[in-house]
Amino acid sequence: MTGQGPSLGSAFLRGIPAAKQRILMELSHEVTFAAGHRIFHEGGRADRFWVLRSGRVALDVHVPGRQTADVELLESEDLLGWSWLFPPYVWHLGARALTEVRADEFDAEAVRALCVGDPELGQAVALAVAAVVGHRLVTARTRLLDLFAPYGSGERG
């Protein structure tokens, strides 16, 4: 199924002009992941990304000598995956479905090629993904401090 659905309202796509959103969504198809499904592994090849329609996904990070640590929870309209945009195209986190998940899936190579051919779209996608990366970095840092620092993330005084 190509998109004209709920994902068009996502924060990731909101920063992209409407006409460009439609072009981008033509490259998508709907997928479903069962609860408990490992969507991707940290260090694996990042060759696609998703905009969630429904369900919940945990992002996690490998911590040597410890269990994998959940660092963020994603829900409807969130972008799942940003490593596809930056060489060497390797996942920086892992992801698993906590509930059944419906999402629009995009082929990363096709989207990168579209962005090269349409610099306006390319800039909009890059800025939208950069905003997600910045948010994820802050969230992961805070979560890891909560889990592993002697006094948690604490308040700055």
From TrEMBL:
SUPFAM superfamilies: cAMP-binding domain-like. Residues 12-81 form the Cyclic nucleotide-binding domain. PROSITE patterns: CNMP_BINDING_3. InterPro entries: cNMP-bd_dom (IPR000595), cNMP-bd_dom_sf (IPR018490), RmlC-like_jellyroll (IPR014710). Pfam families: cNMP_binding (PF00027). This is Cyclic nucleotide-binding domain-containing protein. It comes from Streptantibioticus rubrisoli.
